[in-house]
Amino acid sequence: MTAPAETVAPVLETRGLERRFVTHRPLFGAPTVVQAVNGVDLAIREGETFAIVGESGCGKSTLARMLIGLIRPSAGEVLYRGRDISHLPAREMRGLRRELQFIFQDPFSSLNPRMSVGRLIEEPMQAHGIGTPAERRARVAYLLGRVGLRPEHAGRYPHEFSGGQRQRIGIARALASGPRVLIGDEPVSALDVSIQAQVVNMLEELKDEFGLTLIVIAHDLAVIRHMSDRVAVMYLGEVVETGPVDAIFEAPAHPYTRALMTAIPAPVPGSRPETAGIVEGDVPSPTAPPPGCRFHTRCPFAEARCKTERPRLAPGPGGRLVACHLAGRLPDFAPRTLAPGLTSGAARRFGLWRAARGGDVATSKIPPAEERRP
Length: 374
Ligand SMILES: Nc1ncnc2c1ncn2[C@@H]1O[C@H](COP(=O)(O)OP(=O)(O)O)[C@@H](O)[C@H]1O
Ligand code: SF4
Ligand SMILES: [Mg+2]
Known about the structure:
The chain has about 375 residues and is α/β, with parallel strands linked by helices. Helices cover about 30% and strands about 20% of the residues. The chain binds adenosine-5'-diphosphate, iron/sulfur cluster and magnesium ion.
């Protein structure tokens, strides 16, 4: 996969992005505050697939929601094509939503069960005043076809479809308004591995056809490696390593990235996807994150300064940025030292995807939708 050149202007950029949530406000004393995202600087390039990875609770969804204005930052800014959108009035933000769309993780709760599939896909067009009723209906039929469903499915309701089909409907709905950026928050992690492959391939084809920039949050490192140009690894609200996917997967520089990549059990074909990121030790509470490097309580290389000084992202090999005081001085991490699960599991899944794709990427058809539920 060829990443867009570094000279391409970022389509989305974050500067010092922070989000805190008050989770408990006692009658007396200080409220309990979760630091979900803490000082994130990212630049996402037009046309690339950018992945965000990290253990559950590290702030991926909060970051993604801020990127498209679904929630507001506590500090910092989000620039879309150079313009700060994090403080826009709600009305202007709604207008922009046409260009910035979201695919939700759960295909069961994200679609209104009382709306027909046709209405679900037409609604965003109507909301943004796109097309005549006839044009909208034609686009609904076209989009259904593009996600591997049939025009007659427009008259049916979400409960009549399987999880994979519902996720296809969610994707058609996200595409309806003609977005420029699509963010998928674990878009395939609720699906069976074999169906994941179909949906991942479909997303890649749609990205090319519609000229999208894709931001994907995934638990599964094999999904990320397969799909993405660049990746950001998050830990407790902060980006610890970011850069080209190939460089980082071949030689992860941050101890947390290394731990993520050595902790993946091998998947069993046909099973639910495994969750990556079983790093030794518990994730500290985001209400009281460790001072200095947030990873120091679990890091095998931690030294005295790690407990007091926060490491900042600095350039590392292969065009990456890494936030570790010891970056460049750690022992080499050769791919062969990866747990057997990563290599065999990833290879098996890549094979699955290639098979589902049916060979040539440019001419391949989207695989047929899986069986309807009985
Ligand atoms: N609306 C909210 N209110 C309170 N806490 C929240 C809210 N949303 C997220 N959090 C907390 O913020 C942290 C990051 O959550 P999230 O962004 O969902 O992480 P991830 O998507 O990586 O699992 C978690 O500790 C979570 O409990
Ligand atoms: S800064 Fe220190 S504690 Fe943090 S990842 Fe690097 S070596 Fe480990
Ligand atoms: Mg999440």
